[in-house]
Amino acid sequence: MMSLPKKVTIKEVGPRDGLQNEKQMIKTEDKIEWINMLSETGLSYIEITSFVNPKWIPQLADAIQVAKSIKRKSDITYAALVPNERGLEGALAANMDEVAVFMSASETHNLKNINKSISDTYPVLKPVIQEGIAAGKSVRGYVSTVFGCPYEGNVSIDSVLAVSDKLFSYGIEELSFGDTIGVANPKQVEVVLTEVLKRFPKERIAMHFHNTRGTALANVLVALNLGITNFDSALGGLGGCPYAPGASGNLATDDLHYMLEGMGIETGLKRKELIHSARFLEEKLGKALPSHTMQTERSKISN
Predict the structure, then answer these.
(1) Of 32, 129, 241, 260, which one is the catalytic site residue?
(2) pTM for this prediction
(3) Residue 149 a catalytic site member
(4) Signal sequence span per UniProt (predicted)?
(5) Residue 230: CA count within 13 A, CB half-sphere
(6) Nearest 5°: phi and psi at 119?
(7) Which of 49, 102, 171, 249 would give a disulfide with 142, using CB separation of 3.0 to 4.6 Å?
(8) What is the DSSP secondary structure assignment for residue 210, as one 8-state letter?
């Protein structure tokens, strides 16, 4: 018998991780309206943007304007990704509730994504984390390519644990383990998480699955059975990594919600509002979102 949690926290990353790889530029006012709609879905956490150099991710060049213009709710954590101290300055100026730092478990992906080796990344992130905490913000970490790298293939668990140890030692509150290119399978998730949970409390671990090969929900099920209750996802299955060739969208928030609620696991999310928000985004992107939920909704309309 599986031992499943009674409640799960779904962390919406669509406005950042979802939009960052979209070629269709979304107007600032539409991003603001979409995030405001997401705030009505029952989510308790929304990652709204990234304070990176606009030349790297033009889609998120309006980070400060978006962050300052959304209608915030007191029971929602509004977060942003920051690459360095300059990014942190922007996030603090925009009064983000939480900042997130990121790096990879594989050298080549880290070089492509951050333009630094793993060892050279630590001195950049350490002050960001500590200054963020000193400013009264919670700080989250992302480690990418945990289950496989587009350039190196398999990534050793030792590399994953070494990066994790460093980030936790700097003071992060939570670490999100990313299946950046969607190669993980349930057995692999079990093996990696078993080792991770020997070192770190399950309450401080989140999983960030991509659905490139259709295994994201199966991987979630394994993580649930091991006691994980924090999951990143993007509405409609939006997104992918600009530095991970072949990576398709994130695990879809709407599909994850459907599965969890059907299993009697509380999420706090409202299905009607999720679908309404996803339809708004489809209109602004000018394309259909790939989630199974949205495919089903479209078939209802066509029939």
Answers:
(1) 241
(2) 0.95
(3) no
(4) none
(5) 18
(6) -65, -30
(7) 102
(8) B
